Amino acid sequence: MAPILSSGDDSHQQLLDQLDLTLMPRPFRNPHWKPSQRRNKNIKQIVAEASRKEASVLATQNNSGASTPQVQSSTNGTGAATPFQGTAQTQSSITQAAQNLSTMVLERNLQASLSSGPMATYTNIESAPSLHPAHQKHYCDITGLPAPYTDPKTRLRYHDKEVFEVVRSLPQGVAEKYLEARGAHVVLK
User: Fold this and answer.
1) What SS3 class is residue 149?
2) What is the pTM of this model?
3) Which parts of the chain have pLDDT scores under 50?
């Protein structure tokens, strides 16, 4: 049995209070923790950003100084005289032709980049049909209805009991013709 201590001897209780870990404050998180500066993007954000960049490039090319047509001004400040039709007109037509050519090249490059493959979005994801056996539907060789069963003797697929009776009553060689039509026949050489 533990010794009975007098009420004047509080040193033992004070020591227990000092060493008690439950009274010490402990934060849930590390105070030096900072969230990551890197942010992951989903496919929709990546595609939208790429299309915005392409549109920006086209808009920048169309609004560049090289594609701005030159303004023809009159020789005297009145505006009554006709401007000289020499090199200024030729330079203007060359600039306009260069702008048209650069626009055509940009449009063709954009079409080529877009036609290289379908754009992957949440609403249209183009993919090839699955070749996994679990994803292929089997159809009855006789009726064309969904066929959950296969005859082990003839390897013909059938829909129900009535079609099974027809499959078993087929003459010799007819089952092979059905398999040949389906592309599942075996040719021995």
Assistant:
1) strand
2) 0.33
3) 74-75
